[in-house]
Amino acid sequence: MESRPLRYFVAVAEELNFARAAERLGISPPPLSRAIRQLETELGVTLFERTTHSVALTPAGEVLLAEARIALDALEAAGHRARRAAAPAGGLVLAVKADGDAGLLEPVLERYAADPAAVPVTVRLCAWQESPRLLRRGEADVALVHEPFDRTGLDSETLAVEPRVAALASNDPLAARDRLAHEDLGLRPGELHRFLDGKQSKGRDLAQLLTLVALGEVISLLPASVADRYPRPGVVYRPVDDAPPAVVAIAWPQQSRSRATAALVRAAVAVSEGACGQPRGAHGQAGVPGQAEGAREQPQHEEAPFARP
Question: Which CATH number fits domain 3-80: 1.10.3210.10, 1.10.1740.10, 3.40.1390.10, 1.10.10.10?
Answer without folding.
Answer: 1.10.10.10
